[in-house]
Amino acid sequence: MAENRPAWDGQREDNTPLGGGVPLSPRQGPAGTGPAPGRPGVGFASGDVLDKALPGPSLAASANAAAGTGWAYDQISDDELIGVLGAWQRTG
């Protein structure tokens, strides 16, 4: 099991959903419905909940978590990165 994967995220270690089906992208949830849970940039994509969130400690904590190890932002998509940058701007 991958080290950064939550205890249960609806998929197997081989990246297929439980119950069979088509393998999921690491950035996509079941049936293409959005980001997979447990990823650092979840919610920051254009129009998502954190992309529209009001400034405050929770938004700052989520933006901080999205930065990842060494503030590399290497686990999020370009769309999520723009959302994180907007969140930092709103909190500053």
Q: Which consecutive residue ranges, at least 5 long each, have pLDDT under 50?
A: 7-11, 16-35
| Count of structural domains | 2
End-to-end CA span: 38 Å
Mean pLDDT across residues: 74
Largest sheet: none
Order of helices and strands: HH
Computed CA radius of gyration, to the nearest angstrom:
14 Å
Helical/strand content category: mainly alpha
Question: Count of helical segments?
Answer: 2
Query: In percent terms, what proportion of residues is strand?
Result: under 5%
Oligomer: single chain
Task: Choose one word for the global shape.
Answer: globular
At a glance:
With 92 residues, the chain is mainly α. The protein is 26% helix and 0% strand.
Describe this structure in words.
This protein has 92 residues and is mainly α. The chain has two domains: 1-38, no CATH class; 40-91, no CATH class. The protein is 26% helix and 0% strand. Helix 1 runs antiparallel to helix 2 (78-91). The longest helix has 14 residues, at 78-91.
